[in-house]
Amino acid sequence: MRRCPVCGSETAEDAAVCPVCGSSSSEGGAAGNPAAPAGTRLRSWVTKGVLALVLCSGLWLFYREAFRRYAPVIADQPDVEAPAPPPGKIESTMIEARVDGNAIVIPLRAVVERRIVRFADPTGTLGVPLLAYLTPSGRLVTAVSISENCRSDDFYLEGEDIHCAHCPSYWNASSLEAYACCQRYYPDPLPSTVSNGQVRILADVVRRWKPRS
């Protein structure tokens, strides 16, 4: 007598098929190549699923970075020649603005040197500061320096992003896409121009600005 290699039942020495499970008992037959256990097959499918998810996530991140769009106002802002930003956190610097005709004016050099500056509205119309910064690619952004969610009026730059100085919220500096909290309350961009080394924001635009909450 011998035992079936599949189910373990005793079979006759000359039996070609197990009388219990029907498996071939000959060498090299089906009994010598049992099917993979269900647990092994499940682990294989899970591994394939995880690899597919990682691949899709990588492709999505690449697509998002490669085809990122500027916020509508920022899309029309001028690019400025400036050295690459230094690594690490860049805190804002308070500077003085002046009024020239119907424009609030600050020196472009101050923005290039400091990367992010804040300044008060000299007309006294707006009770919160204004903001000017350069994106990593050198695009000038001017905005109202407030996040109505936490009432912060200060921000800093780090890497590709602009951060609230008083809460965990931060946004992509070019697109203002939110990464943490405050989907809506990024520094609100205002259009501006550059002329003769000066950044100019129309005072009428500043006067018309309304809080978003």
Could you provide a short overview of the structure?
With 213 residues, the chain is α+β, with helices and mostly antiparallel strands. The chain has helices at 38-66, 72-75, 108-114, 203-208, and strands at 2-3, 10-11, 89-91, 93-95, 98-100, 103-107, 116-119, 130-134, 140-144, 155-158, 161-164, 170-172, 178-180, 188-190, 193-195, 198-202.
Provide structural commentary.
- The structure is a single chain.
- The protein has 213 residues and is α+β, with helices and mostly antiparallel strands.
- The chain has two domains: 2-66, no CATH class; 72-208, Rieske [2Fe-2S] iron-sulphur domain (Rieske Iron-sulfur Protein, 3-layer Sandwich).
- Helix content is 22%, strand content 27%.
- The protein contains four helices and 16 strands.
- The protein has helices at 38-66, 72-75, 108-114, 203-208; strands spanning 2-3, 10-11, 89-91, 93-95, 98-100, 103-107, 116-119, 130-134, 140-144, 155-158, 161-164, 170-172, 178-180, 188-190, 193-195, 198-202.
- The strands form four sheets. It has a five-stranded antiparallel beta sheet with strand order 3-10-11-12-13, with no helix packed on it. It has a five-stranded mixed beta sheet with strand order 4-7-8-9-14, covered by helices on one side. Strands 5-6-16-15 form a four-stranded antiparallel beta sheet.
- The longest helix is centred in the first third of the chain and has 29 residues, at 38-66.
- The termini are far apart.
- Mean pLDDT is 84; it is low at 27-33 and 60-68.
